[in-house]
Specification:
373 residues, binds zinc ion, 8 strands, TIM Barrel, alpha/beta
Length: 373
């Protein structure tokens, strides 16, 4: 009940905000992100490359619905302080009902993303050097990512088609099982002993092409099987340490299967993996920085990144479809996500060099390794 009320008031707030957003779009010079930043924080954000390893952009599977929508991705991305986001979508919501549907949704979304990128003057990372180039030119860029290998539908040749469309980061699993099954999802009872043969082959083909493998939503057995198979370092893009439960008991209970244990985090880091910390179970930037700190204390600064699981740019003219918007991850944020987080990381005792690793250095390192031939 409490949660419903909260959502309701948030929706009202966001509806009002979207009016302000329209005014802002008409007069971009008055942008909030430029004027109110602490120069010290601003300098750090300028010096280092920020990457969000898991940022949602789930688009309508119905082209007519998409036609009327506006996505202010370039502006939001610039305001966030990030150089890049792994721009992620899934095709299993609503649940898939027939063969071919996952592929159809996948292609429709990529077509729509092509349009959004064009309208926003943005491009996708196609080779690892593109990230560094964007950063050195003070530009923003996106890493095309998908959450769940549903689109493959057992036809491995589709991974190469997706690669040619710009896919460079693939999450094997999501909430709904793929057909054929990829393996054990962490929120389902285990029955595949980790990964299926299809799951194994998806990893091999992604390794061959140079697509970063993301093991979020995979059970511990599935992660450990993937470690045996993959010849490249991998990421678990959005999770948190299972000792950092925030203040909401019910939420913590719901999130528990999605969190990683200290033991498993160490196993994953030992094979060169990077773990992204999401904004769930963090009620403030400082909470978020503390959750990052807790994981760093277990695996070291070289194996932690940010993976917010928020939305950089939901349709600006359809506020009812809002999830958690990246730059508004916490109440009253006016600075842009990465600025706020850098500030909190400094307050939590991190040095600039460490913030550079967590902020984007670790992601770009394994991303380059995943793509190298
Ligand atoms: Zn997810």
């Amino acid at each position: 009940m409490h949660k419903i009320n909260q959502n309701h008031s948030r929706r009202i707030f966001l509806t009002r905000l979207s009016t302000a957003g329209i005014a802002l779009a008409l007069n971009p010079i008055s942008s909030w992100a430029v004027e109110e930043q602490d120069p010290k924080i601003k300098n750090i954000v300028t010096r280092i490359m920020g990457i969000d390893a898991h940022n949602h952009m789930d688009l309508p599977f119905n082209k007519a619905e998409f036609k009327g929508q506006k996505y202010e991705l370039a502006g939001e991305l610039k305001n966030s302080g990030f150089t890049a986001i792994a721009m992620t979508f899934c095709v299993d919501r609503p649940a898939l009902t027939k063969e071919g549907e996952a592929w159809e949704r996948f292609i429709t979304t990529l077509d729509e993303m092509d349009e959004i990128l064009k309208e926003n003057g943005l491009t996708r990372v196609l080779k690892a050097a593109d990230l560094k180039e964007a950063y050195s030119k003070n530009k923003q860029i996106v890493i095309q990512s998908v959450e769940g290998g549903h689109f493959i539908e057992g036809r491995l040749e589709r991974i190469e088609i997706a690669y040619k469309r710009g896919l460079r980061h693939i999450g094997l699993m999501h909430d709904g099982q793929s057909s054929p099954p990829m393996g054990d999802i962490y929120t389902d009872p285990p029955k595949y002993g980790g990964l299926t043969e299809f799951g194994v082959n998806t990893i091999k083909e992604s390794n061959r092409l140079g697509i970063l493998i993301d093991l979020a939503h995979c059970s511990t057995d599935a992660v450990n099987k993937a470690i045996e198979i993959s010849t490249r370092p991998m990421i678990i893009s959005h999770t948190g340490l299972n000792t950092q439960l925030g203040g909401d008991e019910q939420m913590a209970k719901m999130m528990m299967p999605r969190l990683i244990s200290k033991e498993q985090a160490k196993i994953f880091a030992a094979v060169g993996g990077v773990i992204g910390v999401w904004t769930h179970l963090a009620n403030s930037p400082l909470d978020y920085a503390r959750n990052i700190r807790a994981l760093v204390d277990i695996v070291g600064t070289e194996h932690v990144s940010m993976g917010t699981d928020t939305k950089m740019a939901p349709p600006s003219n359809a506020p009812d479809r809002f999830g958690k918007k990246t730059n508004l991850s916490w109440d009253n944020e006016k600075q842009g996500f990465f600025y706020v987080v850098v500030d909190a990381l400094l307050k939590t005792g991190f040095a600039e060099k460490e913030i550079e690793q967590i902020g984007g250095g670790n992601y770009s390192r394994i991303f380059a390794k995943a793509m190298s031939s």
